[in-house]
Amino acid sequence: MHRKQHLPQKTCVQCERPFFWRKKWARCWNEVCYCSERCRRSAKQSKRLASKHPKEAQA
Hints:
By secondary structure, this protein is of the alpha+beta class. It is 36% helix and 10% strand. It has helices spanning 37-52, 54-58, and strands at 9-11, 18-20.
């Protein structure tokens, strides 16, 4: 009996890989955008770099 195959799934905004619902996200599943802390940090860092160097980000 496999129960995990029926869990909700989303796609990570940063790495574009699918990830599944976790119990720790039960209260905030609608706000979850990233599959891991690493993706969240790298997205935050890339936004910060783009805001510091707007000309380089466009190229």
